[in-house]
């Protein structure tokens, strides 16, 4: 096996020592296993960020000796997650030629599921993020639980059958309120058939594989961190807009989940006292102003043609064609998205926000508008820069990759 030489990227905070564990503000000690998980995760992220990398280069980047790196990577080589390539040319100063480490192309695949109201997507994902055996299915959001479970098993089963060897496990990215600790979908307002469903147990018992589930926006976040615009970032948020609104946080090098995965219900933060009634039953939720239902209602009021078909991509296109009504609505949509981001910025100061879903289809135009409104809302500090990015890979692509990343993280007990 041969690898191309690639320039190393600088890794923010990449030091593989016990001292690097984030300070929690308490005297609780960190176990050796937790330190090991952090170190394994950072080696993997270094490989994702930089491509094939030798032990010597990993050691140099981390400021540790090569023996320390070997102790971290050797178990992953034994598990066939990583493989060493052919030795390159010896250095001019002599010494043993370096052998680059990278992901094993013959490693077991990862099963991934994206479950949203009315739709199922399944696929296989390689350790380097390539997607294959992709399938789609639909289900009745208000239908029979047994019918949904049968559809899920059939769709996922066909995908897994294309794997050459048993996958490492199955990762599920699901919309709605998720109890990630117990593997249960707590509630989905737009798909009541899923509410209360112990999906992890159902799939684990049926397929005999490790199964991990998490909130859909957190899977997007993991996809961003491992494979997308979040590479190398230590603090950022993923924001999803569409029929619903959600988000997830990556803070100080870790995914924030909250109690039983309850963190990140951003759509139900209040941005307008006594505002519009939300699907959750409350008023003034961010979701009432930053989703497609609001956008389409406003498009109808503005007299835009075919308002029920309007989305951010079409609105941007109409605005660029000279429609003042479309430009005005696009700016108000951006402002509504910016209100919630500004509150996050004032509270957490993450500085970087990646848009997904409908807003991401608006490209740089919507990103620039959102950024300008955020900067108007927040108290900017000297030298502070707020970035609003879009993930152009598409929601399904990123979420499925993120779901696969959940499996890797759980399999290796990574602290992400």
From TrEMBL:
InterPro entries: ATPase_NBD, ROK, WH-like_DNA-bd_sf, WH_DNA-bd_sf
Superkingdom to which the source organism belongs: Bacteria
Pfam families xref list: HTH_24 (PF13412), ROK (PF00480)
Name used for this protein in its record: ROK family protein
């Amino acid at each position: 096996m041969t690898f191309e030489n690639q320039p190393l990227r600088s890794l923010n905070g990449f030091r593989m020592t016990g001292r690097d564990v984030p300070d929690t503000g308490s005297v609780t000690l960190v176990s050796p296993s937790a330190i090991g998980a952090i170190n394994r995760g950072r080696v993997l992220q270094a490989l994702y960020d930089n491509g094939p990398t030798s032990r010597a280069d990993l050691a140099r980047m981390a400021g540790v000796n090569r023996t320390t790196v070997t102790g971290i990577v050797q178990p992953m080589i034994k598990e066939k997650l990583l493989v060493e390539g052919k030795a390159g040319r010896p250095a001019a100063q002599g010494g043993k030629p370096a052998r680059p480490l990278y992901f094993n192309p013959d490693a077991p695949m990862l099963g991934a599921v994206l479950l949203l109201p009315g739709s199922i997507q399944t696929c296989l994902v390689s350790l380097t993020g390539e997607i294959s055996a992709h399938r789609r299915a639909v289900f009745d959001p208000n239908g029979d639980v047994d019918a949904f479970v049968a559809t899920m098993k059939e769709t996922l089963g066909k995908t897994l059958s294309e794997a050459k060897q048993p996958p490492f496990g199955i990762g599920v990215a699901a919309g709605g309120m998720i109890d990630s600790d117990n593997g249960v979908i707590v509630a989905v307002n737009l798909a009541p058939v899923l509410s209360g469903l112990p999906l992890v147990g159902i799939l684990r018992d049926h397929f005999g594989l490790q199964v991990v589930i998490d909130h859909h926006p957190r899977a997007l976040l993991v996809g961003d961190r491992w494979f997308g615009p979040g590479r190398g970032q230590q603090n950022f948020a993923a924001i999803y807009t569409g029929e619903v609104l959600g988000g997830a946080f990556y803070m100080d090098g870790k995914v924030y989940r909250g109690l039983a995965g309850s963190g990140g219900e951003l759509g139900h933060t209040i941005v307008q006292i006594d505002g519009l009634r939300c699907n959750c039953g409350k008023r003034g939720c961010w979701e009432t102003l930053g989703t497609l239902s609001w956008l389409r209602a406003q498009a109808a009021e503005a007299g835009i043609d075919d308002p029920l078909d309007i989305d951010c991509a079409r609105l941007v296109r109409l605005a660029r064609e000279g429609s003042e009504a479309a430009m005005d609505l696009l700016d108000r949509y951006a402002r509504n998205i910016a209100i919630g981001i500004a509150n996050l910025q004032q509270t957490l100061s993450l500085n970087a926000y990646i848009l997904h879903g409908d807003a991401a289809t608006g490209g740089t135009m919507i990103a620039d508008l959102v950024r300008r409104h955020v900067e108007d809302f927040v108290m900017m500090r000297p030298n502070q820069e707020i970035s609003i990015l879009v993930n152009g890979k598409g929601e399904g692509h990123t979420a499925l990759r993120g779901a696969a990343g959940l499996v890797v993280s759980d399999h290796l007990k990574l602290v992400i």
